[in-house]
Design a protein that fits this description.
alpha+beta, Glutaredoxin
């Protein structure tokens, strides 16, 4: 999972491939809850480039994508948003997997 990037690098990645943006923060208990499951999800949905967006380090990216709650997931396919799981609630492995399966079924 990519964790360090500039905004220009992020835009290039989002515009040129299938991407999952995973928004979180180190202080967020719900993010800490889902974090151990991310590597498994990343392996299961490896058609996507996974990018971790630390909401505190990249507040501008969160605002541009209307991410008001974390953890959140946004999927893009060559620059087009194809899925959004954004709210302030805790997310389980099964909920995120179901979301990603729905996204894949539309592609």
């Amino acid at each position: 999972m990519l964790e360090k990037f500039t905004n220009d690098e992020l835009k290039t990645l989002v515009d040129n491939q299938k991407v999952v943006l995973f928004f979180s923060a180190s202080w967020c208990p719900d993010c800490i809850f889902i974090d151990p499951y991310i590597p498994k999800l990343e392996k299961e949905f490896n058609d996507f480039k996974w990018i971790h967006v630390d909401r505190d380090e990249h507040m501008d990216v969160a605002q541009e994508n209307n991410v008001m709650g974390i953890p959140s997931f946004i999927c893009f396919d060559h620059g087009k948003e194809v899925g959004r799981f954004v709210d302030k609630d805790r997310k389980t492995y099964d909920q995120v997997k179901d979301f990603l399966n729905q996204v894949e079924s539309k592609l």
